[in-house]
Amino acid sequence: MRTLLLTPLFLLSFGGAALATQCVDKRMLDDQLGKQFGESELATGLSKSNAVKIYRNPASQTWSMVVIMPNGVACVVATGESMEISANLPVNHFRSM
């Protein structure tokens, strides 16, 4: 199990289960994901109120999903292993992997 060493720690509730969500400044989170897990940004999605980023380490296959709010606060909302990139995506779909 991966543990990202960031503070403060917030708890969100999803369907009755508690998910530990860690929120910090986006620049700090980018640095920590890179240093601790060798993850770099894979994809970004934008909405009216925030951005969602997926970070991935292609060697270890670990990944992190991050929500970034307009004020620059970024929260890790999910992490995992064994990320598989869909074969249906065009070759140039992602900037780099």
Protein traits:
single chain, 12% helix, globular, mainly beta, 6 strands
Would you give an account of this structure?
With 97 residues, this protein is mainly beta. Helix content is 12%, strand content 43%. It is built from one helix and six strands. It has a six-stranded antiparallel beta sheet. A hairpin with a 4-residue loop joins strand 3 (40-46) and strand 4. It is globular and about 35 Å long.
Strand content: 35-45%
H/E topology pattern? EEHEEEE
Strand order of the largest sheet: 1-2-6-5-4-3
How confident is the prediction overall: mean pLDDT?
Answer: 76
How many strands, what sense, and barrel or not for the largest sheet?
6 strands, antiparallel
The N- to C-terminal Cα distance equals 23 Å
Please give the radius of gyration in angstroms: 14 Å
The total count of helices amounts to 1
Detail the poorly predicted runs. Answer: 5-19
Class from helix and strand fractions: mainly beta
Task: Give a short overview.
12% of the residues lie in helices and 43% in strands. It is mainly beta and 97 residues long.
Give the arrangement of secondary structure elements.
Blueprint: E1 9-14, E2 17-25, H1 26-37, E3 40-46, E4 51-56, E5 63-68, E6 73-80
Antiparallel strand pairs: 1-2, 2-6, 3-4, 4-5, 5-6
